[in-house]
Task: structure prediction
Amino acid sequence: MQRPLILISNDDGITAQGILNLVNVMKELGDVIVVAPDGPQSGMGHAITVGDTLRLNESFIFEGVRAY
Result:
């Protein structure tokens, strides 16, 4: 049986304690990929990004987990 692919994201930033806790639990259940901002972005879900370039950088903050 193939392990599920689990996407973890948040608006508190990639270094938030909550995302670290979630990664540690979920990597036992499946393959995890994390996509989160580099800092807190609470409330930005209502923002529109038109004309601004979005950048994606790989992070190595979580051992054995791909993160951006």
